[in-house]
Design goal:
Elements lengths: L12 H14 L1 H10 L7 E10 L5 E10 L2 E9 L9 H14 L5 E8 L1 H4 L8 E3 H11 L2 H20 L6 H17 L19 E2 L7 E6 L4 E6 L4 H10 L5 E4 L4 E6 L13 H21 L4
Parallel strand pairs: 3-4, 4-5
Antiparallel strand pairs: 1-2, 2-3, 6-7, 7-8, 8-10, 9-10
Length: 303
Amino acid sequence: MEETVIPVESIRERDVDLILLEELSVDFVFCEWITRELGLPVFENFFGAWRSISDYGLGETDILFSYESNNKKIYVLIENKLDASFQDEQYQRYMLRAENYIKNNQCDEAYSVLIAPKIYCENQTYFERYMTYEEISSRFEKLSSKRNLFKSQLFKIASEKLRRGYQPINSEIVQKFWSSYWEYKNENYPNLKMKKPGIVPLNSDWPMLYDDNLKGVVFYHKWYRGTTDVTFKSFPDSVKYKIQEILPEDFELIEHRKNFSVRLLSDKVNRKEDFQGQLDKIKSGLDNLEKLRVWLIENSPNI
């Protein structure tokens, strides 16, 4: 057999599940690495890892990973996506399962994360914490043993499968909502710039807005979550510490995997429902984005 022939024709989600389950169960250096990269509590002691866990009548967790950190029991609910679309309310069920685990004293803290190819991660608007197949493949490759190089190749095959076949599918209902939002914003909030909507998939839920005078930050109106954020991209920790010192009482600093945001709570908005019927909630959120923008401009000299 020629050495250039790939070991398998294609990879399925179940294949990736089993690789992840093995790594989490037997390689605690991998556990330390993935929890650190995801911005989770520091890994100290392994408790367990399980596949296809259904609890509380709220759907299935692809992989449930449990470990100890600072005398606390941590649950990580992992959704592994290769090329399938999110099911309706799938992310919300993950969050409810996590809340129930804490409420029923099964763990002290619970986090929901996504593991998927990069193009999938960057085109979804649910999971703030995610790890790409490409990052996992790169880590295996750097370890350079034959076993790890083989696993790296499997993740590359999975990523390439999605890259070749990925075509965003437009949702007419959601596209109409985005277009109404874009038009309303342009008329009433001209200082916040937003790209005109083109193809809008069903799960698109986070409009991205900008101010040309504020470099390196992005404003997000996270409709379903009911939050408005200004996210700082690739800023040093010194900026984060300065912002912490000057935050107004109703502002909250949120740390992401590699970036951080300043957040204001807003009313929840449903992109699948009528725009005009939710106008008061939409206006409230845009008012919060404008509030964040003005605050940032006024405090830029001190950051």
